[in-house]
């Protein structure tokens, strides 16, 4: 196939999914959702084809104009657009895609910041999927967004399940927008600043870090942690979304 005007395989992050069990699992997860579907990075259509059989409106995008042309011929009933996952409007209820590994973080950050979607089923790098789902402890990004989203890990994908084969395995992650957020959206910016201050703050114990980040007395910080069932020896990565929200909601404005 001719080289895209946007670059070759490495520039586009093209690792095409060929692992049949993963294709079936992603399709099953999307089947359980409702509404029109937006696929990011359609590539050769490994996911586009089964998604098109669900009887729901599907829009698939890709940067490679040659792949787009082939998909339009093969799937005339699917809306195939030449677009960028970093700029396309995220206005479909369901987002799905085999995300280019080198763009995993910026795409995730954008998903968690903009759009009106309700469910996202994504194939990302394995380590990114683990971290986003809190396996081994929460990351700052997950803690900053967990009051509004839930993260679920649905399995590991071997590197040999892609062509060409990448250097790392993949992971299937499902992100769901909470119907009832743990913190009002109007407080999102201030809350995220607070989480950053806690993750990057100094202090020998968590109560000291919380006190410094929220400008309250250390004794009051210890009391808040006890109320939320958090040990002062815990690390920020150990806190659950509910504990983060409980601490934040109890801090005086």
Automatic annotation (TrEMBL):
It comes from the Bacteria. Belongs to the class I-like SAM-binding methyltransferase superfamily. rRNA adenine N(6)-methyltransferase family. Keywords: Methyltransferase, RNA-binding, S-adenosyl-L-methionine, Transferase. It holds the Pfam family RrnaAD. This is Ribosomal RNA adenine methylase transferase N-terminal domain-containing protein. CDD domains: AdoMet_MTases (cd02440). It comes from Microbacterium soli. Transmembrane segments: none annotated. Residues 22-179 form the Ribosomal RNA adenine methylase transferase N-terminal domain. The lineage of its organism: Bacteria, Bacillati, Actinomycetota, Actinomycetes, Micrococcales. The keyword Flavoprotein does not apply. InterPro entries: KsgA/Erm (IPR001737), rRNA_Ade_diMease-like_C (IPR023165), rRNA_Ade_methylase_Trfase_N (IPR020598), SAM-dependent_MTases_sf (IPR029063). S-adenosyl-L-methionine binds at residues 15, 17, 41, 62, 84, 98.
